[in-house]
Every structure is written in C-alpha cells, then in structure tokens.
Structures
1.
Amino acid sequence: MRRYLLPLALLFVSAFPFAASRADDFYRGKQITILVGFSAGGTYDATARLFARHLGRHLAGNPTVIVQNMPGAGSMVATMNLFHTAPKDGTTLGVIGGGTVIEPLLGNPQAKYDARQFAWIGGRSRDDFLCVVWHTVPVNSIADATTRQVVVGATGPGSRTQTYPQALNDLAGTKFKIVSGYPGGNEITLALQKGEVEGYCGWAVGSIRQRAPQWLTDGTLKVLVQFTAGKPDLPNAPVATDLAKTKEGREAIQILSADSVLAWPLMAPPGLPADRVRELRTTFNAMMADPALLADAKKANLDVDRVSGAEMQALIDRLYAAPAPVLDLVRKINVGN
C-alpha cells in the first residue's frame, strides 16, 4: 500500500505548485501597454512612465511595460479605446484624465462608456487643482475675474481645464474666456508662457511642482481659486465650492472636484477576470510603497500619496448616484450654457 501512496502523494504535491505557477505566470513573456490620454512631456505622461518603469518588476512573470501616448479630447480618445478596442485581459492599461469619468453622466454623445465598468487599479496621489494667471496679467483675485475677461487654455469638453472655468462662470460670475483644443497641459503651459493665454484653470498642484515648484512661491503664478475634494493644499487660496451661491451649485462643484481623488489613475478595460483585477491592485499597492519607485518619483518631482483602486471605484459609484437636479446643473456647465 505504501508503495502506491507515495507516488500519489508526490503527484498532489507537485500538482498544486504547477497550478499556482500557471495562474501567476499570465504575464510571463508578455508586454503591457499603458495608454496615456495626453501628449508627451506633461504630468500624465510622466506618471505613466513612472508606472511603466516599476510595474513589470512587481508583477509575476516580469513583463515588459511600454507607454503609448494617445491624446485627444481631454483623454476621451484613449478612454474610448480602452473601453471598446483594447484587449480585455490586462495587457493594456490606461492613464486618463479624472474628469473623463463623469462625461457619460453629462450627456456627452461621444462618451459611449460606463466608467463603473472599468477596473480601477489605483492612483499615484490625490491632488488639488488651481485656476491661475501669469504674473504679468492685471488680475490678482477671483473677484477681479468677475469684472475682467481672462483668457484660459483648455484641452476639450470633459476635461477639468474646460469644466472648471465654465463652472466658475456659471456659478460664481467670473468672465473666463475658454480657448479649447490644446493637446495637453504641457501645451497650455507653453501657451501661458508665450502669452497666447492669460491663465490655466484646472492645473494640478502636483503638475506645477513637477514642472517648476518655485512658481507657486516666487510670484510667477497668481492663484485665484482651488478645486479640492478634501483639505485644501494651499490654505490661503479660496476654495471653489465656497464661491457657488446655491446648494445645488456647491454640490455640482463637489462632483467636478472629485477629480482631485481620481487625479492620476491607473485603470484597465472592463471585463477583466476578478483574479486579474486583484493581482493588479495588489501589485500596484506594493509598487507604490517600493523605495525604488519613491526615489524615482522624488527625482521627477512627482508626489506619491497612493489612492486605492477600491476607493476610486466607490467614489465613481457615488458620482453615478448623484441627485438628478445636481447632475442636470453639471450637464449645463459641461456644455457651456
């Protein structure tokens, strides 16, 4: 009897590691592509490349990870690709603008996706977003922007660069003139420096610190207002929510400000197996705590304050459950009425 039991026992012992190896080695020999919804050179691009340099080391199988820029319509082009075209197996991931999440709620006919169906892996950090003007512009406060037109650059509908100044126009009486069509924040920044536009509304604090942190302290930028879903990053700058004159207006700005939690996301197309989503989230958490990544992020002036995929998913679910009158108001802001 022992003669038969020993080979049987060895069979079971060897079978389980083999099964685990097959499950863990999905990525072995594969390549992961991270689509970025903006042009090269900006903070979204830098965030995606930070992920790409470290993700493969933490995933079982150590896949190669590359970045592909797919700018257009405030990252709508990349978002649509991820939802409809990209393979649904975890070999294509995305870094998109957080504001793109709510576009289907706003009646945008181009936004043919449901953000709840994406697999939200995690975020690099929370962030606040500023409306600023260049130091040469004769505007010193948000009150000044209610009496003088301020030309600001924007990427396109659905992006915070367009919805934030429009929200202030509709709810706080400002006179921002929105010039849309820039591929990304990097191009808006260059336009600001060259005098093509006077301001940049929806500029992430983290992006400014990544590009030129002294601009926030040496007077190069004048901060008019900040959008945030939490504690303000700049205690001396007014918060957009406080400027709205009605309860619905304040709630509408809160929905738009949810972008501060969804600021720098890593996400995957819908339809991933649950175990693949768990693997990616667990890997992301470990990667974001890795001293090598933290040192790399510091060198690139990128803040790290990890947001879990579960928190992002819960926030998106709440946004989709917002009261109809508030969503109606956000829709009006989104279309510029």
2.
Amino acid sequence: MPDKSIITISNKFNKINDYNLICEDTFKVLPQIPDNFADHCITDPPYNISGYDFKKEIGWLKSNKYWSEQKNFKKIEEDWDKFSNGDYEKFTKLWLDEIFRIVKPNGNIIIFGSYHNIYKIGYLLQKDHKKIINSVVWFKRNAFPNITQRMLCESTEHIIWAVNETDDKAKNWTFNYEELKKYNTVKECGKCKKIIDAENKYCPNCGNNIFKTKKLQLRNLWDIPSTPAGERKHGKHPSQKPIQVLERLIVGGTKKDEIIIDPFAGSGTTALVTKNLGRKFVAIDNDKNYCKIILNRLKDGYQENMI
C-alpha cells in the first residue's frame, strides 16, 4: 500500500505531515508557509545553463554526427532553466528571501550550483550577511568530457553551506562532526602509523601488513561518481544528484525528525534521502512528470547507496 503520509500530487500547501510533496509553482507555495517553519533548506535550484544571455547555439554540434548521433549528446535546454542574467538574479533573490523567512534562525541553508550560478548565489548570501561555513566541491570522476576542446573539462559541482543568521549572531548550527567521519574511513599502518591507501596490502613505507581502521574528519572535496543508472529507474531528470551526496549533507547538517524544505525538488533525491534518514520534508516542484518520479521513488524507498 502507498504511504498515506505522502501528499501525492497536491496543488497547495496543507498542514504538515511527515512527508509533503507539493506539485505547484514554488512562488505560489512558499508565501503560504509560516515563518520559522522549517529547520533547514537543502535545494538544487536552476543553474541558468539554458539561459539566453550570451549563450549561442552550438553550430558544430549539428554538423558533428559523432556527438549528436553516436554519443547522443544533448545540451541542457529546459524552459525552467532559462533566464536573462538580470532575471536570474531577481529570481534567486526572491526564493532566497522566502527561505530566509521560512527556515529557523541558525538553520542550515545548503545550495547546489555550478560555475554558471554559484558565485551569484554566494554574492546574494553575503549581501544579506548570512554566515557561510563551508564550500563543498563535488568531484565527478565520470563527468561527461568537454567536447568543444576550448576549455577545461568541467568535472565538479559546488555546494554552499550557509547558516540562516548573520556572521555576528550565528551560533549553535547543526554540524554532526563525528557522524560525518564514517565517510572518511582510512587504513593506518600498525607499525609506522602512516595513513595508506585502502587497496594496499602492505605498507609502502615500512612493509608492515597489520593495519587498523581509522576515521578522520571529512574534507570538503567529495569524490563521488555521477548519478548511477539504478537511481534513475523511475525516470530521468537532467540534473539529478546522487544519493551519496545528499546523504552526507543530511547526515551532517540535520537531526532526526527535523523538517527540511526543498523548493526545487527535481527528481526528489533530497526528499528520498530525508525520508530514509528519519527526517521530514516539504518538497516542491511545478512539473507533474517530475512529481510522479519523486512519488515513485518515495514509494520504492531506494536505499542501495545508503551507508
């Protein structure tokens, strides 16, 4: 039987259940949510990769059959991702202002981006005097190659971790330091105490073959592959994030039973991991097809990559 606590495809904000999936324009929903309602926000907003300021049609892509046909390369071209540069800044400020109101003081605000938009978002956070505690770099080892051969291959995305308070007032934000250590488990040589690669059977420094496991503090460079096919079995979204990335953020930045709001839910990875880890969520997206993907993922409860 389906989980009755999930609002399947709702067109308005209702009283909170443990899991709220709302299929509607986020700017219609956010104003209906009370002040200080959510504990945190984790979201993946449009990057404006499809925007129209200075973005030209890729002429060579049409003429290059290898990439367009054999490799099935498609430029991201989504209506929800198209803004002029000026409109994108206004759009970002509008949703950020709502999130500043909805998230409790000292709650975490964690935002995904790429070089296309992350500097703009960081600028707006700083302009509003929000405390930024970390910048996470997600290294995608299997990222798609740069086929223009006119710039470096873009193999990273970025995550800004901010606190919903000013620098001078920010305090006691959630950061589960010890819990995050499980994502940085290494081998320590029992003889020379040097840290070595997990695949080594002998210590390259002293030849010893007796090791002990050690958990170190998690760094801000995360080497995690792009979203695997198994996580897309209910449908595809052009910017779907892998479960492993969201798991680290939710484990590290939230507590059980807290409410996490995601105003740009996409394929629902934040909602799914939030549910699996015993948190509550409000997930909003205006695309019915994506909402159906989210609903099916929530019902399926896919947890294969959860540690």
3.
Amino acid sequence: MTRVALHRRERSLRDPRHVSRAGYSLVELMVALTAGTLVVASTYYVGAASARHFQEQQRIGQTQNGVRLAMDILQRDLARAGYLGTANSLTDQRCLAPAVELQAIEFQNNVDNAEIPNADLNRVSADRLRLVGSYASNDAFFATGLDAAGTTIFLQTAWQAFRRNFGLPPIDTAATGNFATTFAAGRMLRIRTQAGNVFYGTIGSASAGAASVTFAPALPIGGVCVGGLADGASVSVLSRFEYRVDDGGAFESTALNPAGSDFVEGQRTYLIRREITFGAAPTVVAGTDQVILENAVDFNLDFTFDQEVNRALPISLERLGGAASAPLLGSVAAGAAGAAPERVRSAIISLSARTADQDPTFRYLARADGDPLTRFKVTVNAAYPGAARVRSLTSEVQLANLR
C-alpha cells in the first residue's frame, strides 16, 4: 500500500461518522433500577429487623437484671429476719406479755393477685411478706439501767458496739444523726435481762445526749422480772418490713406514684419494699416506699418447716407452699392460731418480671399447669397484639436466725 493510501485510510478512521454510538436500552435500565431497589429494600429490612431485635434484647436484659437485683435485696432481708430479735415472741422467756406479739416472718398467700393485670389468664399470683429483725443496726447494746418509771433505758456509751455505731461521746444529737435514725419512733426495743427475761416496748423518743431511749409499756420495776433496774441487759432495735406487689396506687407518697408514665393502658405493677409499723393493722412509715422491681408479674413463696416438735429427735423437713404455709406463718398480732415461725428453716422465693411492652411478633400462648412462665399477656386489647417476654428467678434462703 502506498503512502497516499495509508494516509487516506487514517483519515477515514478518524472521521466521526465511523465512531460507534452503542448505549443502554430501556429494558436494561429498568432491570438495573429494579435490582437496585431490591438491594436497598433488603438492606433496610435487615437493618430494621436487627434494630428491633437489638432493642428487644436490651429490654430483656434490663428485665433480667432487674429481677436479679430484686432477688438480691429479698435474699438479704429474709436472711436477716429474726436477727437480734425473736422468731416468735410467744416462745420467749418472759413474765410480762408485750402489747404487740412479734414474729420474724408473716406470710399471706395470693392476697395481691388483683394488682396484676390478667392474673388468672396468665396463671400468676402475688403473695405478701412481712419481716421483723434488727435491720437498723448490726449490733445489740448494753444498758446501764432504767429510770424510776421503767419507761426509759440508758445505754453504755463505753461499750464497743455503741461506739462502732454512734462514735465516741459526745455523739451527734441532730435529728438526722445515727442515734436518732436508729432508734426512730415507732420501732420496737427488745430488752433481754441478765436473767434471760425478754421484754418489748415501742419506741417513743430517743435522746442522743443522754444515750437513752423512751418506750412503752413500762417495765415492772422492783420485781424479779427485771432485776437491778436492767443493768447489763442487752438492747436491740427491731424494724418491720413489708414486701407486696402493687400497681402504684398504694404508694405511701403520691409523688412516687408513677401511674402517669404507664406505657400500656396503666398496666404497670411493682414489687414494693416498705417499712411498716407494728401491730395487726400497720401503717407505712413515711418516706420508706421503695420500688425494687418494675413490671413484677409473679411473686410466690414456699417454706420448709421442721415438723418434728420433739427437739431430742432428728429434724423432719417438709416443704409447704400456698395456703398450707399461711396458718404456720400467719400474724401472731392478728391472733392467728397455730402460728409457728420458729419451725421454718428456709424460704423458697419465685420472682418474675415482664418486659415493658408487648412484642407484636411474640405470639401469646396459653400457659398450662407446669409450664414455665415465659410470656405474659398485659392487655387483651386488639390494638396491642403479641405478648411481653418474662424472666424469672428462684432461690432458697436459709433462715438461721429462727433456729
């Protein structure tokens, strides 16, 4: 090929009319758009499902942690029942009956079921528990004597237990000081003389400056029951606590009533710990309401009792629950016949709580006898499908202070 021919050929190749104009067809564009839409939608769906699953697992974890913390508080309080006090004041060595009989544990079976929404549908229940023991102090104190009226007892300020609790004299005399808060009005004094006689008196007032506590009724001065104006007697202070399930309406303080924050038609329930006064019809001590578990849906107690009355024979343990335990752990103050808390050896606690809301993807299934409590129907309203998830714990607490 000549040089002229090659030149012509190069010019023809550079001519724009010979350049290819190929591109995407409409069908190809639609296929690409559809595929892209599917990828984006799938990614969004997977992301949204993962977020919902993460949030649900967060709620389940919070519920499980709440049940565990509440169980820890219950275990500590139960193990302390009767500490520096009595299992049953009717069994004490005494020559003067107290104005109010005491027992370390009182139990009422299923009395708060109505506080739980759909309790029958979900096959759950709520017991009530009352405990008496030395919860305000770890120590007993020694007395130097009584006043002439037998209504005021003076404590030894040189005793190590006194100084461990209240410091070296002069001690804090403020109303918020340790002495005043420990010997708070309405609590109970347990006075045990060197002869072993036991007396109980309701605290009226306490004087930190004089290291003295005033109580009623008066002790009989001048007889063999007290002896030596109770010099050397041991003195402990007893408190009484109640555990109950409630919807918030029975909170002692209206400021603590969280009913307005309910997520599902006001159906929240709480396990409450509160200090109460002594007597058959107790009142709540102001400022002592504590919510130890939100969304509590089941609170049940069983007990093991020593059924062998003869102490010379080996113990015979039997587990009793529900109504069977009620006569043995009924309130002595209320005059329950046959109450014998001194025979209880352990308490078995079953505690459950639900997640804050129902999960619409978590189907409710009716619970049969023997089935574990895993789901809870808060409301049967069709606008709230599904069920809440439930987490539970069971623990046995040995009650060594009652033996």
